[in-house]
Amino acid sequence: MLDLDLLPEEYAVCRLPAGTALPATLRSGPDDKSVLSVTWAPDETSIICPADRVPEGATAETPWRCLRVVGPLDLALTGVLASLVGPLAEARVNIVTFSTYDTDYLLVPTVRLREAVNTLVKAGHRISG
User: Are strands 126-128 and 3-16 parallel, antiparallel or unpaired?
Assistant: First the structure.
């Protein structure tokens, strides 16, 4: 059983061309509580950000809601994402995931949020927020 926090805002999953620098609109100040993930890969720059901060020119899929596994998690733990992804796959809820050093994040389409939350709770997880 995992504890998850439902983050309050909607998110976007974005794609920019390979080698794109971090857009200025995504640079945050010390009071910014939003989650932002940037992945530079040989064939793309992938960004997960609040829906109201989508970089200009990005291909973006919105809106998504973000669930954060309450952490920090020990990097030696196994099966954390599997315990979330498995039940959602069975319920046919599409997802996007990403991880940080301390925890894992799971995005579900806003239109499937209620179904995703019910599925995760039924699987034994606790969700707040």
Answer: parallel
